[in-house]
Design goal:
2-enoyl-CoA Hydratase, Chain A, domain 1, 21 strands, 2 domains, alpha/beta
């Protein structure tokens, strides 16, 4: 869409953000003349242009999107009746046309002067978000205050990005939490919300956030009936990834290695880092990727974190939510498996079973093409949970040195021959590794389709997804599951 920006709104921070996230001169404003309707508490004497929120549509790299941006210069961006109705109406248009909604939040909360009118309209937004879930992508950017009931907005959307300076996200402010205060633990900060709660998918400067939103929109389908997001592939489909074997620890790097032109858009990169989730491109097609990770390296090649290879509660829930999004929007799923078991500990035991069940359910329920590459250890029930043949993986590959079985061979031998000396245990461990822990043993039983060289991973997974392009799979008729 070319030409002059079609808006009557004077330049403000809210409108500047819209212009930054959309293609140049593509924004068309809707409802610019709407103002507050309430007359209580002297509101009649206060100007409320656009009632504190700019709404409209535009394009990102040619893709239609709807966007609303809260204007903090109008009654501190508080949400009144008409403010909320404008957002709700925008959702109606987005659902009719099948296009994403982007919300740019900067708001002091509900407008006290409008009481139940504001509350009712606020609830209408919740309902629109719930109805839109799984139908159109919903993306949130947080640039200022997002507190109380407004904090539910990003939680009801698919992806949330938060400015590292000036933005605050909370249900209860840090100082309102018993035995806490902001200087002790700022629970409203971007750092806390991205590392501890997992509500925020990405953190950065305002410019970085808006660019992340633009990039994400170009990788996603517009709605759940869109065929998918495709682009021409300029990379070699048979490209050999010679360094891939060295990335078995940090699978975020491994995913970037096998992706077209090394494109990898990581989701929740600061949360549960032992599990990697994000989008890659294979032959121009967007693929959702889930991978176990035992090491984290920064851009300078320094190791910043290390994990024991076990599935954690946070990691399982992170992956399950991501898989559910991919399945809702028909995005194929690739997994890189390197799991040694479940995390052990008193705190973990409170949630691990239910969390693993969530991940197991997500894989089993997903009807999109599912490809698994076992790159390291695949032990016990953790292996089964990570997109195994048993849960419905369409194709399973394994690197030639992968280990697949009940548990580590040495531990198995110690359990089975507990009263034997070390010589016997070593002998039995070697025998167990050959018979039960080897990738050849799993392949002989059909649990692995093909044993591959690490460097050939890219061409094999591309071939698999090409083959699975027309996959159709039904599930038993039901209203919804309950896991």
């Amino acid at each position: 869409m070319e030409g002059k920006r079609m808006s009557n709104t004077t330049t403000s921070l809210a409108s500047t953000r819209i212009d930054s996230v959309l293609d140049a001169n593509s924004f068309v404003e809707i409802g610019a003349s709407i103002t507050a309707r309430s007359t209580d508490f002297n509101l009649t004497g206060i100007q409320t242009p656009s009632d504190g929120v700019i709404t409209g549509y535009g394009v990102i790299d040619g893709n239609l999107v709807y966007v609303y941006s809260q204007d903090v210069s109008v009654l501190n961006g508080t949400i009144g009746e008409m403010h909320a109705k404008k957002i709700a109406n925008l959702y109606d248009l987005a659902m009719k046309t099948g296009a994403p909604v982007i919300g740019l939040l900067d708001c002091a909360g509900l407008r006290l002067q409008e009481a139940t009118d504001a509350l009712n309209a606020f609830g209408e937004i919740y309902r629109k978000q719930a109805l839109a879930s799984g139908v159109i992508p919903q993306i949130t950017g947080i640039f200022g205050i997002c507190g109380g009931g407004l904090a539910i907005f990003p939680a009801l959307t698919d992806f949330t990005f938060m400015a590292d300076k000036g933005a605050r996200l909370f249900v209860n402010s840090p100082n309102a939490i018993e035995d806490n205060y902001e200087e002790k633990c700022d629970t409203s900060s971007a750092l806390y919300q991205s590392e501890e709660t997992g509500l925020v998918d990405g953190v950065g400067s305002e410019e970085e956030i808006l660019q992340k939103i633009r990039t994400l929109v170009t990788m996603l389908p517009s709605n759940n009936e869109d065929d998918a997001s495709y682009e021409e592939c300029t990379d070699d489909l048979n490209r050999v990834c010679s360094e891939l074997v060295n990335c078995v620890g940090d699978t975020a790097i491994a995913l970037s290695q096998i992706s077209d032109n090394h494109i990898f858009f990581e989701i929740k990169e600061n949360y549960a880092q032992e599990m990697v989730t994000g989008f890659i491109k294979l032959n121009g097609m967007t693929i959702g990727a889930v991978a176990n990770r035992s090491e984290v390296y920064d851009q300078e090649g320094n190791k910043t974190a290390q994990f024991d290879g076990s599935l954690t509660s946070k990691g399982c829930r992170k992956a399950a939510e991501f898989i559910e999004f991919c399945d809702a929007f028909s995005i194929p799923v690739l997994t890189l498996t390197n799991a040694s078991g479940y995390s052990a500990g008193k705190c973990s035991e409170k949630t691990i079973a239910k969390s693993v069940a969530k991940l197991t359910y997500a894989f089993a329920q997903a009807t999109v093409p599912k490809v698994n590459v076992i790159v390291g250890k695949a032990f016990g029930s953790a292996y089964v949970t990570m997109n195994s043949k048993a849960l419905g993986a369409d194709m399973v590959y394994a690197w030639k040195d992968a280990q697949i079985g009940m548990m580590d061979a040495n531990l198995a031998a110690k359990i089975m021959y507990a009263d034997s000396d070390m010589a016997v245990i070593r002998e039995k461990a070697s025998e167990y590794a050959k018979l039960q822990d080897s990738v050849q043993s799993a392949a002989a039983r059909g649990y692995v389709d093909t044993i591959i060289e690490p460097q050939d991973t890219r061409k094999y997974v591309i071939g698999a997804f090409e083959m699975l392009f027309t996959k159709r799979e039904d599930r038993p008729a039901k209203k919804h599951g309950t896991v």
